[in-house]
Structures are given as structure tokens and as C-alpha cells.
Amino acid sequence: MVYLAIVISIIILALAIPLIETLRWWRLWHNNIPKQPHTQQWSRALVFLTGISDFSDPELSTEQKYFVEKLPSLLKTDLNIATPFPYNSDICKRYTQINMVRRLFGTPLPMWVCSLHNFWQTALAVLWKRRYGKSVARCLRTTLGEIESQHTIFFVCGSAGAAIALAAIPDLVEDSNANIVIISYGGIFCFHKGSLYVTRHLQFVGEKDIWVRMWRFTMRQSWWANRFQKKAIGDCRYQCYNTGPHYHFDERGYLSLCVEPLTEKTYQQLTFEKIRAQILSSEERY
């Protein structure tokens, strides 16, 4: 019984510490959002929302950088927001000073810690979407500046990024009819009110991504999620595509630069080619 109690305590601590850090990180960037939005002219914006997170790191990973570099020419964007959310390196520096997780586990953070950051962000975006979504929308408004009806915003999302985007979109576009396109690879999210504001949602899922399958099974039991899902599918605003033999992350993940043996292409190439094909074949003009 003593050993069982110790194991349970360790599990609780392992879950609780990343949650506490996620909430501290949220509070830090929420309280330091500039009051005045940036002034800039744009018509098509790329907003990259990462999934797995080390809140202290102001840079994207090498794989993410290679991927994002290919997107502006494909999406024809004239504003590209492609650093880790909340797109402010000063926040990362300030968070580093209070980062309990990094002190415990060192650098780089273990994947399971980053994954739990990802999980708790998803939970906040799904279960507390009004409060968390408003915070994210406020941050994005400051970063993007004024959003007008003729604007198009492409959210390119990994994992939790899709849930975060959907939570923020209702407040982000409440004063405009801007076109919103979500491109999510391995996205973990639930359909809710935010889905109704999306012009088009393209989801790309790997054959071996068990995390997305588990999440879909869980969400399938929620009648409210099904209602919005049916609406999005019925309006032809949501489509899901297979990317190939991808796992959720690691060396066989969506953005991995490792070569897939059968196709002799990198896993990132397979992901990008699927996205490119759907963007180019679309009859809609964003």
C-alpha cells in the first residue's frame, strides 16, 4: 500500500506541476499584452500555433522552421507570424526566471513534460474556452493589428494549436467577416461555436497517430461536439485527409526531417505535399 501511495503521489505531481506552470505562463503573457495593437498593412496573414511547448524557448524547432519557410509562397501571405505563441521573446525570458519545471528537469525539457504542457493547453481551450479564448484573441489582435472583412487569416496548427485557434476565433473576428482558414496537422480539438466562424478547416491526420484517434473517440460521446461537427461537415467547411504513416510526434511525426522508407521522402515532405495539394486544388479563393 505504501508503494502504491508513492506511485499515485508521483503521478499526481507529474500531472500537477505542468498544469501549474501552464497557468503561470498564461497569467504572465495575459498580464503583459500591449494595450496598443501593432499598426501594419496586410491582406493575408499566416499565424503559426505550435502544439508541444517549452514556454521558455523563444524559437521554433529546426523542423518547424523548415516547415514554416515553405508556407508563405504557398498561401501567398504578406504577414507571417511564425514564432512561438505569444510571439514575444521577452515573455519567454521572464518566464525562464520562474520556470520550476526547467529547474527540476533541466534543458531541454523531457518530451513528456512538453506533452503535458500541450495537454493542459488543450484542456484550457476546450473546457475553459471563453476565458482562455478571450486571452488568446486579445493577444492575436495586438499582434495582427486591425482585422477587416477582406482579410484572410491562415491558422497553421500543430496538435493543441487547433483547439487554441478555435477557442480564440469567435472573439478575434467578432467585429469583422474575415476569412478564417485552419490547416491542422494531427490537430486535437473539439467542434464548438468557434467552428461556425471558420471559412474552411483542413485537418491532416497520420495513419499511426493514436492520440488523434483516442481524442476523436472521446469527443464522439459528446452530443454538443457532434452538433457543431455535423454543421461544419454539412456546410463543406471541414475536410480531413490522410498524410501517410505519421505518428503524432518524434522521428516519424508530421514535421520530422527523417526519411520515410517506402516513399524515400521525409515525413515533413509528405505532410507538406498533402497540404499543398489541397490548397492548390481548392476552388475557393481565400
UniProtKB/TrEMBL annotation:
Q: What is this protein called?
A: Uncharacterized protein
Q: Which domain of life is it from?
A: Bacteria
**Organism field:** Uabimicrobium amorphum
